[in-house]
Sequence to fold (680 residues):
Amino acid sequence: MSNTDKPFLSVRDLKVHFPTDDGLVKSVNGLSFDLERGKTLGIVGESGSGKSVTSLSIMGLHRTGTKRGAPRISGEIWLDGEDLVAASADRVRKLRGRKMAMIFQDPLTAMHPYYTVGAQIVEGYRAHHPGASKKEARKRAVEMLDRVGIPQPDKRVDNYPHEFSGGMRQRAMIAMALVNDPDLLIADEPTTALDVTVQAQILDLIRDLQKEFGSAVVIITHDLGVVAELADDILVMYGGKPVERGPAATIFESPEHPYTWGLLGSMPRLDRELQDRLIPVKGTPPSLINVPSGCAFHPRCPYAELTGGRSVSEVPALAEAAPRHHAACHLPIAERHRIFTEEIAPRL
Amino acid sequence: MLVYLVRRLVNVVFMLLVVAAVTFGIFFMVPKLTGTDPAMLYVGKIADKAAVEGIRHKMGLDKSIIEQFWLFLRGVFAGRDYNAGVDMTHCAAPCLGYSFKTEQAVWPLLLNRVGVDISLAVGASVLWLVFGTATGVISALRRGTTLDRVTMTVALAGVSLPMYFTGLVALAVFVNQLGWFPNSYTDFADDPVSWFQGLVLPWVTLAFLFAATYARLSRATLLDVLGEDYIRTARAKGLKEPVVIGKHAMRSTLTPILTIFGMDLGGLLGGAVLTEKTFNLRGLGYEAVTSIQSSDLPVIMGVTLFAAFFIVMANLVVDLLYAVVDPRVRLT
Fold:
């Protein structure tokens, strides 16, 4: 298959299962999505929904290190015409850091405390530019630090991570990820560990850099506010499966899935009346070993009984609710729209 | 940095003074409690009263404890004259007094003994550091395999088996049965080959004991480090696995090992009692045992101070090295 007739990033029926002593943990259990260059996909879900595991699978980071505890991965991950699941570990390593890069949640723990920020960026550059001299690589590191808005980059390049503030560290992380001009950037909770004031700056920076570099971006977050600012498309995950997928504006205006309603209801908003409480999603995330039967969300879903038992017995498929907008729910579309407009929307 | 160093060195001196004071206190108290007279220990049981009094005066044992401690300290730094009229003995600095039993000066005696401990400690520490850490690292990287289980079982045995068991087994097999090694110590200066042959078994058995601890520690540390976020970052950059392990992971793994290595080495330099006893080596540990058995208090005092000095210095060196290895550590 040539590079042109497939989307830039295309995930097909991805399954990531971890064998453990307690049983098989189905962290990701049938996930598909597409992403074009220059576009941003927000993957949203609570802890254990499989969103981080998905990103690590794309990066091939589950295949490194010891074999023990390694997951079984099936399905396809097409990146620019190449299936990463079928590719050799060494081939994926070569793509890592060059074609696809990742930034992590906590920039303090994600950087090696014993090496300078500059040395860590230089290392990433030289790993994929073996011909580059130390001097060139250093120049490139200073350039990147300057580009992500670190003042006095020629001095800061020799600082250690602990000498940076949290926001500056995340900027440095982004510089490290972008040093090889990757086509795909995965940001796993990039602002969660940061001060609220810094969060917006980092999101702005990611948006600006995406425009400049034209890369595809996957933002993983539990915070719908983050994707509201950045994402073109949103994918909502629950219990290792996608429950809703569609353009960001559509998801915010007319969400189809009761779980998405819950996420929206639990999101703090400045335009909300002060006396209105947040509406939490009741219950706890499902076990990934004994996933609830039927719709994994049914034990927590206030509308599950309206489906006449189908939510308990039958796994809902992702079905089109509107053009480019899919949801996996047994409730009839008309019923969903009625519940949303009458019961949910007024409380948001 | 310089301020830190000066402060630490003052600290070292203070620590040694405390050790000296406590040891001296015991040195003074023991004869009182057991009813023995230090002067009697010098001259022997059949001495007449005048000779005892003479030696008491000459050694300063008739002075107050504070004055005796002061004279002892001054002796360490400036040397000391034992003076009883015409009968005068000069003890050059650093003077730690004379053995009750042999009437030898303690300082040269200890200097003579410490060579054994340096030979023993340095040789064994190289062995255990290299083999212990390597075993631990390989085990961690092969976690859960048969190799890992076997090495960790051997390591557990190494931690649990006492020196006087492994040492005696080694002696029985390699010296008595096979006759591969001599059971005696030769000074390096006298004959390097015999020195080496005589030390192979003590090195290996002592190293086995320590290597077991180091293997377990480095395995556990490396496994912890491999779970760190920055290792994932290193892999996310596309670095090759040998670089991820050999550079990023090992740097963090070796740092805590460095700490206990310094302490272990310092401790061993001050005498390895069981090893010396098992292999008939006459080092500081041997001297400590014999001097305690014969209540030879000046020697006990000297050995204690010597060992304390090594441990305190090892501590200082480790702290300085730590600041070199870990940029987050500031010496203030």
User: Anything to note?
Assistant: Residues 106-141 of chain B form the longest helix (36 residues). The two ends of chain B are 7 Å apart (CA to CA). Chain B has 13 helices and two strands.
